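Researcher: Please predict.
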Amino acid sequence: MASRYGSMKQIQSFGPSGETIMDYSIYDAIRAGFGKVVFIIREDFADNFKSIFEPKLNGRIATEYVYQEKGAFLPDVTVPAERTKPWGTAHAVLCARYAVKEPFAVINADDFYGKDSFEKAAAFLINDSNENTYSIIGYELAKTLSDNGTVSRGVCEVDENSNLVSIKERTKIYREGDKILYEENDVKYEVPFDSSVSMNFWCFPPTMFDATEKLFHDFVRENYSDIKSEFFIPLLGDDFVHNQQGTIKVIPTSAQWFGVTYKEDAPVVKASVDKLVAGGEYPASLWA
């Protein structure tokens, strides 16, 4: 349930035949060569969720469901009684450990990533993914902003070989005139328009789960009393690069990202989808 959006945007219709944003991601994944989709959801949403997606996807791609529960994969501790939030996106990935045995990509359900990004991810996973090499699909910052409020973005610093050096989480990013700014402690800083940002489209080998579980246990022990702490995917990337001497390729995409951070974003997203359909990028009914 999205706090800023006010409803379950993951199952809201945006396409001309009632398609969700997730439908378009799965469609793009299938035509890029992916063979399985694992949905990470809350168990109390499962019946409603399956009733929406199983009729569409049956016979088109293998599906599996895992549930992100607060007690999953915890070390030798109990869930703090005051904690209401899940443990974060990296914990969500960890919850899929026993459902995923192959090289895989991770996406957000409510973000539209575009055909090119799935093709780039599939090519990396087939040709270059290994236990020492992960990747991020990198978007141009200017193509990921909202006209209806500030956003948070993981701004990537890359070296001359397009390898990730660091991700800096920048909050309150927005466009102001011909500049893009972010605010920190009430001070404004400029960010280049063509900065590469992570939109949580990651590519991993299945070997990442061992390190992720260990890192999660350390995280829980260190942050147990902070009931709002979250174990985010960029923490995995930072540990992989700086402690495991791994490489994370930042793969640029020409795709236009769009998403529904705010309720006011919904008409813009619908219009963007309609334009792609009118241009022949997608059929008017994805699963007909």
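Model: The chain has one domain: 9-278.
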